[in-house]
Structure formats: structure tokens, C-alpha cells
Design a protein that fits this description.
The chain is globular, with a radius of gyration of 21 Å. α5 crosses α8 and α8 packs parallel to α9. By secondary structure, it is an alpha/beta fold. The chain is about 30% helix and about 20% strand.
């Protein structure tokens, strides 16, 4: 039996709306006691002075990209889950745009089996040895792997997959991770999937309106001389999707929301009672188009970073619950793939190991978000979007927890990153805030 005691740790629990300092004891993966002070301590208890540390419910990633299968030079399943744990995530959901795409039950079964194999006793021992030696820096097992099954064959947007087979084998929900612009097909998909009660995630984007734009259209796109992608490429697709939801009554999750007008449309839809949830990505809450002045290829994102008014609206949308969760959308690419011009670089950046630290420093420490607001958007909110149960930090519950040191300084470089790709604008920079342990 393993007993650990975290003394005077700051507990952030969005389930019970708790933000307080207390002692927490954990026995064999279960929370035993939560109290202002725990004085009855067993002899073999490992005691940690956790003053200044934050203990929160485990973070949940709504959607990210895996290199495996097919592009293992970007990330393997192993490196992806290690990166997730190092960033405080206890659940990770991968999109089906792998090579081959996750559009059949056989591939889903293989990936789930590999995830189970990674949590074997031997793999866990090897895992412990990979983490930097520290009294707290460790993890109990790999994070839980969720798999989004494709909506269409080859995620090509032309023909619906055998969704019943994918649902039966245990996909978390259905998403192509790409725009699905055939509205007739999308309507049939929504009608067919409605009885299955699985999450359906759609990215509202009109490729024709987006054209060749690589950053959000506006004064900064003109100043920087880069092709602009207008906000209506998102909002027109979103408006059409909301009409389909109103017609079919099928719940839909709206991915990658990035404009102020989209926040308005979602707020109106929710007020009317439409069954929608929504997410934006972490980088869209940190940066806007002005940051592209550096022409750093890792700021080429899809959807592109918003204009300053979009950034303000997205932050307010998260705080008020119009936007239900923050997604990481971890998108690994090799050095060679990203070392081209801004316009030619594939869109996307890594984020699983960086998001919590940067969001905490830039939003919580600047009083733009409360700690509870941020933690809810990274944990409870995404879990609810996935229709998954999520427990409070309460005696008797399984320990699915993240221990975070908001004062720890560390450098974003190869020795400190578990993901195989390093495509981030923060590469080589010092960050404030580090996850010390995850209980998965």
C-alpha cells in the first residue's frame, strides 16, 4: 500500500467550485482524506511539503493530432501521451486525420490496445525512469486515450463511414477534424448519428471563402503583406451548421471557434436552446494577429489567430461559458516541414506541455481569469463536451489529479520536451509554471 500526503497544497476543483488550501492524502490511487490539517499520519506515509503548489482535477484535452500511425517522425503514441502527462493532462483525444485515417474499427482497436499495453507494469517502470529525478515529478500511468472516429471515409468529406462499427468498438465520438462542406451529407450524418448519443465535433470553415488566406484578414494582414482569411469563412459555415442543428436536433460540438462574431452566434444559439457546445484553442486565447509581425512559421495556425477584438471576445466567451472548453489541438510537425516561408508552412503548433503554464501566467496571474475559470475550461468543461464523467477532489474518488508549480522556471528545449516535434514559437524561451506530477 502506497500512502502519500500533500501538505498545505492549494486545491482547485471546478466540480465543487473549490479554491482553498488543505492537506490531501492519497492511498493506492484513491483520495483518502481532504482536510485543513491531517494529523493522523501513518509511519510509511510519503510526506510532501506542497506549499505554493496547486493541486487540480486532471486536465482533459478535447482534440489533438497524433503522428502515429503513419507519421511517427512527428510523434508516436508513446511520446504524445508522455507529453500530455508532462503538461498535466490525464485524458487525451486524438483526431482521425492520421495516415491511414482512423475510419475503421480495426485501426481503432489497434490503437486502444497499444494504449493499454503502454500501461502494463513493465511500461510503467520504464516510464518512471524517463522522468527527471525529483521528489514529486512522476506519473502513475499514461493518460487515458480517447479516439475520435472519422465521420467520412479517408476524412475526405464525401462518404459516411460505418459509424455503427466505430461506435461499438469505443470511439469517444465522431469528427473529421477538417471542414465538412457538403451540407446535404452533413445533414444525413447528423440524422443518422442522433440515436447513438455520441459527441459529434464539426469545424465550421468555408474553404472557398478562406481561399489562400494564411492569417485573419484585417489591418495586420495588410501591414504584413500576407493573404487574409476573412472572418466570414468561419461565420457563414457556423450559421449554416446551426441551422442544421436546429432542424435535426442533433447535439454538435463546434471546434476551433476563433472570431468575435462566432461567439455572438453561439450565444444566440444557446439562448434559443440549441444543443451545442463549443471550444477554442489555447493559442487563440494568448495571441492575436499582431504577433505575426515576427513571421514565425509556428504562428501559422488553422484557423488563423484572430484580430485583437476576436481575442477579447474569445476570452469573455470562455469566462461566461459561451465557449465550454479550451482545446490544445496539439499539431506536431518536423523541423524540415516547418522550416519554410510562413505561407508555405503547414498550419499548427505543439501545445500539450506548454498550455497550462502559458495560460496561467498570462491569464490567471494578470487577473484576466480566476484560477477556477481557467481550470474549469481545461478540465470539467472538455469532459462534459465529451459526455464523460468527471469527479471532484473528494475522499473515496479515484485520484485523477494534476500537481502544478506556478513559480517553477524551465526552458522549452529538447531535453525538457517529450513530444518529438518542437514546432512552437516559445522554443528556447523560459516559461514560468511547470507540472510536477499527474495521477492518471
Amino acid at each position: 500500500m502506497t500512502t502519500e500526503l500533500l501538505q498545505q497544497v492549494r486545491i482547485i476543483d471546478p466540480v465543487s467550485q473549490t479554491d482553498r488550501v488543505a492537506d490531501v492524502s492519497i492511498v493506492d490511487g484513491y483520495i483518502e482524506h481532504v482536510s485543513d490539517r491531517i494529523s493522523d499520519i501513518a509511519i510509511d506515509t510519503k510526506i510532501h511539503d506542497a506549499r505554493g503548489l496547486v493541486l487540480g482535477t486532471g486536465l482533459v484535452d478535447l482534440y489533438s493530432h497524433s503522428g502515429e500511425p503513419g507519421r511517427e517522425q512527428r510523434d508516436t503514441l508513446n511520446s504524445l501521451l508522455l507529453a500530455a502527462a508532462a503538461g498535466g493532462f490525464t485524458r487525451v483525444s486524438i483526431l482521425p486525420d492520421t495516415s491511414p485515417p482512423i475510419d475503421n474499427s480495426a485501426l481503432v482497436g489497434q490503437l486502444l490496445q497499444k494504449s493499454n499495453d503502454l500501461n502494463s507494469p513493465l511500461s510503467r517502470n520504464q516510464l518512471e525512469n524517463r522522468f527527471v529525478a525529483s521528489s514529486l515529478l512522476t506519473m502513475t500511468s499514461f493518460p487515458r486515450l480517447n479516439i475520435w472516429g472519422a465521420l467520412t471515409l479517408d476524412v475526405a468529406g464525401k462518404q459516411m463511414v460505418e459509424v455503427a462499427d466505430l461506435a461499438a468498438i469505443g470511439v469517444v465520438g465522431f469528427a473529421d477534424g477538417k471542414p465538412l462542406e457538403n451540407l446535404g451529407l452533413l445533414r444525413r450524418i447528423l440524422e443518422y448519428l442522433k440515436p447513438m448519443s455520441k459527441p459529434i465535433a464539426i469545424w465550421p470553415c468555408d474553404r472557398n471563402l478562406a481561399s489562400s488566406g494564411v492569417m485573419r484578414e484585417g489591418k495586420y494582414s495588410i501591414r504584413f503583406g500576407l493573404p487574409g482569411n476573412p472572418a466570414i469563412s468561419e461565420t457563414t459555415a457556423l450559421a449554416a451548421l446551426l441551422e442544421l442543428v436546429a432542424t435535426t436536433g442533433t447535439p454538435v460540438h463546434l471546434m476551433r471557434i476563433s472570431t468575435a462574431r462566432s461567439v455572438e452566434l453561439i450565444a444566440a444559439a444557446k439562448q434559443k436552446g440549441l444543443p451545442v457546445t463549443a471550444s477554442t484553442t489555447w493559442m487563440h486565447l494568448l495571441l492575436d494577429t499582431s504577433s505575426i509581425e515576427s513571421y514565425n512559421q509556428n504562428l501559422h495556425l488553422e484557423p488563423p489567430l484572430g484580430n485583437p477584438e476576436d481575442l477579447i471576445a474569445l476570452r469573455q466567451g470562455v469566462r461566461t461559458g459561451i465557449i465550454d472548453g479550451i482545446a490544445i489541438d496539439h499539431s506536431p510537425y518536423s523541423y524540415e516541414e516547418k522550416t519554410v516561408s510562413f505561407s508555405e508552412a503547414p498550419p499548427g503548433a505543439i501545445g500539450l506541455e506548454l498550455a497550462l503554464a502559458l495560460l496561467w501566467e498570462n491569464l490567471v496571474e494578470t487577473n484576466k481569469f480566476t484560477a477556477l475559470e481557467l481550470w474549469k475550461a481545461l478540465s470539467k468543461g472538455p469532459a462534459e463536451c465529451l459526455n464523460q464523467d468527471y469527479s471532484a477532489i473528494f475522499p473515496g474518488q479515484k485520484a485523477e489529479l494534476t500537481l502544478f508549480n506556478p513559480e517553477k522556471i524551465w526552458q522549452v528545449d529538447t531535453p525538457n520536451l517529450y513530444t518529438l516535434s518542437k514546432n512552437t514559437p516559445w522554443l528556447g524561451k523560459n516559461l514560468k509554471g511547470k507540472v510536477m506530477r499527474t495521477w492518471c
